[in-house]
Each structure stands twice: as C-alpha cells, then as structure tokens.
Amino acid sequence: MEFGLGLPTTVLDKDGPALAAWARRAEEAGFGSLGVIDRLVYDNFESLTSLAAAAAVTERVRLTTGILIAPYRTQTALLAKQAATVSALSGGRLVLGVAAGGREDDYQAVDAPYHDRGRRLDLQLAELRETWQGKGPVPGIGPQLPAGQPPLLVGGHSPAAMRRAARLGDGWFCGGSSATGYGELVERLRQAWAAEGRTDRPRLVSLTYAALGPGAKELAQEYLGDYYSFAGPVAQRIASMAITDRQALVDLAQGYAEIGCDELILMPCSADPRQLESLAEAVL
Questions:
Q1: What residue ranges define each of the domains in the chain, with the CATH number in brackets?
Q2: CA-to-CA distance for 112 and 128, rounded, in angstroms?
Q3: Which end of the chain, N or C, is less surrounded by CB atoms within 10 Å?
C-alpha cells in the first residue's frame, strides 16, 4: 500500500507561501501523492488551484482531489478545462476524486441546486471524459488529454455513490473510517463493481486525519471541531477519530493494507513542518 500526504489547505494555521515547501518536502520524503479536501463555504484554499501550485514545485507525486465537490461547479466545461490544465501542467499526475458532498451551504453560495446533485454528478462525469477526449458538447475545449487521464475516483459511502463509482469511475475514494468499517464498505463496493459487469479491479484510496507529537490530540480536536462545526455534536466524534498516536497509525495502516487499500492519504491537522516529518517517519 502506498501513502499520500494531504496538503494543509484547510487547517487553521495554513500558510500560502509555505505550501510549496510542504509539497516539495512531501515528495522528497517519499509520499506517493499530495491530496486535498474540498469546501467552498470555509476559510480554505481552493483545491485545483492548490494542486496547480504543488505541481509547479514537484516532479513525481500524484496530485489527488480527495474529493472535489463537482456538482456545485455547475459549469462543467470550465471544470473540465481546469482539471485538464492541472493534468497537463503536471505531466499527467492529476487524480480527480469527485463526490456529491453534503454541505448545502456550499451549493447555496453559488446558486447551485442541491437536492439533485447526485444525478447531475453522473452527467458531469460523462461530460468530463468526453471533453478531455475532444468529444464534449462544446467542441474545441482543451487541452485534450490521453485516454484514461486523469483517472476518476468516485467518493461516497451510499449505495448510489458506489453504483456511480462502478458505472463511471476508475476506482473509489473513501473518507475516514476505522479499518473494520472500511472492510465492510469495500465489500459493498466490490459487489457494486461486479453488478455493473466490471472485470477490472477498482483502485481503492482512502484518507485519515492524523496528528503526532506533543499536544496532537488537542491539535486535532481544535482543527476538526472547527472544520466540521456544521455537524454540531458529531464534530467532536469526528475529531476523536483522528489518529494521534504513532503506533495507532501504524496499526491502522496495516489494517487498511490487509483489506486491499491501494493508497492511504494522511490528512494533517496543522501546517507545522514537524507534522510532515513525524508522519513520514511513522509510515515511510
């Protein structure tokens, strides 16, 4: 199993000028990818823009949206061009993870409909692929990309999301959960994959929030409590699931690997470079 590292684009102490140094150091440390999570109504850096910045200072690591909330980006032709640009600028390193999202205020902020977002995501995925191959509803949008680029991962735990992944994706992206819960979800995904007649193997990517070192638990609780504050009391439960112990991280990673996860992306709870070093030392 490979390990990715999240870019600190949503953390409370994010630092724009320092983002490039984080990306470079993650690549040097041996992480396989750099990941971003996506929100609109929050004080975070935009996902594709952040990955473009990371692409400019790296050469090898994949650049993964884990995930991008595509349906509130209602201009699919523009999204296709933005994603294709990041892919082309990075030499084909973009991995586009997408999902419907669950924050209605993100949609309201851009006057996008919320309740049919799953249906519209289905249509978007088809249009994205067509546009990248020069066959979209609006001719002439480039840059055009080689077949299969960027790979599409579909996120979500619901049966509809898993059917979407099996029908339209190259793999599945899972949000944070325990290794035990992950195993149950993977089994459901494989069933959906088989039901669609797929004989290829889905790429399985997941993430977990992690902080190590002195004060790690408090650091995770402060950040994740703020990020998930919209969820009310559930926010603290999410925060409590963050990995804040080195051995716990090693054990979790082993559990994911045994289930068949291809890549686990560690999402930091701080932009402190010492967090990058600690996470690298724990898993690489």
A1: 7-283 (3.20.20.30)
A2: 18
A3: C
pTM of the model: 0.97
**pLDDT computed for residue 68 by the predictor:** 98
Neighbours of 137 (CB within 10 A): 10
Eight-state DSSP code of residue 74: -
Q: What are the tokens at 17?
A: 């000028």
Task: Determine the Cα–Cα distance for residues 171 and 86; give it in Å rounded to an integer.
Answer: 20
Instruction: Using alpha carbons only, give the angle 34, 187, 63 rounded to the nearest 5 degrees.
Output: 10
Alpha helices in 140-178 (DSSP H): 159-168
Q: Which of 99, 106, 104, 100 is nearest to 40 (CA)?
A: 106
Write the DSSP string, 127-143.
HHHHHHTT-SSSTT-S-
Higher pLDDT, 243 or 230: 243
